[in-house]
Design a protein that fits this description.
2 helices, 6 strands
Length: 138
């Protein structure tokens, strides 16, 4: 049976030699203890920073989703309205409701008629309807 070496002796069993001088760290009993650094403060700060970035990104995606949903609903409303003409790009059209509450599109402005006015819209180059502020119509 082989004699076990004391814990403070650095003996490499694979190479069958003493190699304390070759280690990248101190090996004698009087050397400073090797301890893991306390990085809990760094972790807390990093987690907070990362969570704030995730929250900002989430809010940005949520805002984009809401804008996309509004754009979809607006286009559905105008495209489902009744009209007997081909809308021209950049031209302003006005959306009204008839007596049966069905939407229809017209070139007549809200100040020129007594229809139930819903809003004013312009079609862009992507064939998507953009709502125009009422103040611009009057």
């Amino acid at each position: 049976m082989e004699a076990k070496k004391p814990d403070n002796v650095v003996y490499n069993e694979e190479e069958q030699r003493y190699d304390a001088a070759l280690k990248p760290y101190a090996t004698n009993v009087g050397a400073p203890a090797i301890t893991a650094a306390d990085n809990s403060g760094w972790k807390l700060t990093s987690v907070k920073t990362v969570n704030e970035r995730f929250q900002a990104k989430f809010e940005d995606i949520h805002r984009q989703y809401q804008e996309l949903t509004e754009q979809y609903e607006r286009n559905q409303l105008v495209y489902n309205a009744k009209f007997n003409f081909t809308p021209q790009l950049g031209q302003t059209y006005h959306l009204y409701r008839d007596k049966h509450l069905q939407p229809f599109l017209s070139i007549i402005g809200p100040t020129e008629c007594n229809f139930d006015y819903v809003g004013s819209y312009r079609i862009n180059a992507d064939k998507m309807w953009e709502e125009i502020a009422q103040a611009a119509n009057q």
